Amino acid sequence: MAARHSASSRGEKSTARGVVHVGLGLLAAVLIIGVVVAGLSRAGVGGFCIDAAEVTVAAEPDIVDHVETLAGGAGGCYSYEVAAASSADMAVRFVSGQDLPDIWVPDSAVRLAQVSQDVQIPFETVLNSIASTPVIIASSGIELDLSTWTSALATPRLAMGDPVRSGSADAPILAATSEVETMRSTAEALATSMAALAQGQAGRQDVPPTARDLLDRVSGAGGAAIVSEQQAELARRDAPESGLVLAAPRTGAVFLGYPLAVTTQDPVRRDEVTEAAEELRAATASTDFASGLAEDGFRGADRAPLAGGAGVGEVEALVVRDPNRLHSALQRWRLLATPGRSLVLVDTSGSMGFPMAGTDYTRIQALVDTAAAGLGQFPDDAALGVWAFGGAAGRDGNPYVEVAPIQRLEVPTAEGIHRDSLAAALASLPGVVGGGTDLHRTVLDAYAMVRSTYDPDMINSIIVISDGANDTVSGLAGDDFLDRLREMVDPSRPVIVVTVGLLDDADPETLAEISRATGGSSHVARTPEEIVRVFAAAIGQRGGV
Hints:
Blueprint: H1 2-43, E1 53-59, H2 64-73, E2 78-84, H3 87-96, E3 103-105, H4 109-119, E4 124-127, E5 133-140, H5 149-152, E6 158-159, H6 167-181, H7 187-198, H8 211-221, E7 223-228, H9 229-238, E8 245-247, E9 255-256, E10 260-262, H10 270-283, H11 287-295, H12 323-337, E11 340-347, H13 363-375, E12 383-389, E13 400-408, E14 412-413, E15 416-417, H14 418-428, H15 439-452, E16 459-466, H16 478-488, E17 496-502, H17 508-518, E18 522-525, H18 528-540
Parallel strand pairs: 1-2, 1-3, 6-7, 11-12, 11-16, 16-17, 17-18
Antiparallel strand pairs: 3-10, 4-10, 5-7, 5-8, 5-9, 12-13, 14-15
Helix pairs in contact: 2-10, 3-4, 6-12, 7-18, 13-14, 13-18, 15-16, 16-17
């Protein structure tokens, strides 16, 4: 009995162990199947994807169709919602903290870094470039100096978009800055070119022109425009008879690169979004994707020239390696592109009637002719006024007289618009030449007037053009005058004074002190031609030397 009981007990235990083993085996199988199913679900294999994760993607409008192609070819189990958004739109969205996308494809790494710095939010770049295109110059019926970008930017009638909103528009500024960094140009030349270009209207319009708008204008009326190679190629394909000539300066070009970056600020979803971005990255290896880019005028990430001789061919990629220099260049543009409000003080003392060496012009005639020509370079939204100062010009006990009030150039007047009134005022100046120069009193009164009528939406400045030192006794010695001027400076209402000394007769030390006291810059011009160059340089250095 005992033996049979023992055998039966062993059998029952063996059976129990077998059941346990089978149960464990089934449990392991279920777990393995669960893991496999989950993996298949996440990988999107065999029709799984029960819990497809939604990922939002914002892309620059010119590349958005190709990003949608990537989203359609991505192998993972993600539902991509792709929408077009310009860099300017994205900057506003990041600042407001609303509607932030999970993934962003801007037009350049510079734009990505700039927005990241502006909003103090770190972004993770998953792919440096999904496509590329150089920023070039499209022209028709015009001569271009293509030795450098710095020289090209000084081309009359050169049009472009707004560098604050567009990578295509900030690229030439970065290219010229790269030339300065590599000593193929100078900072002074760049400041002058940028000042001339910034005075254009396009960058300050509420709705800047599109690349196609710019190209259509060039095709129809001639001139030149800064656009991407891709945009220009599409325009040429659509209108082969347009006569557009595409070129890049001999130094090279800045490339738009369309990086792929994770921008979600949700820490719980960051790993998931990064995986979704990696799936998009993997999809860029598709031959269909590469073919689609080429058909649309884009280069690949390797920047190889377009096939069939299209575009500008092989071109060196220009980059700004110093982040501080890069940021400074873009900040400088923002300053220059702000409309200016300036009171111009013109010396009409007796010495301005002396002849310019080697010419048939008097100093005042050379100045008037130069200023009249320069007037055409200012946009309609600039505000300008003119005072004449000198013994013969003074009125009502003052050593100066207002010959034109500060108004926007587009304001209607009896002569037509204020621009016309200014031209007439300048032409009248030779008739009031004579007497001494009360520079000190004139500058102080001008500064007080401009500060009291300060416009916070404009750069407020005074431009002093003189060929001599203060030679009229007004009770203000040099040190007293400078002390008074420094006391008037109000950082909350900055008014800078830019001084231009004519010839070697001018008192460069006093003029420089005036500029330094107000955060402006000081310059000397010795010929009529130098007046043009120096004046442009002075405008280019608004807000600091």
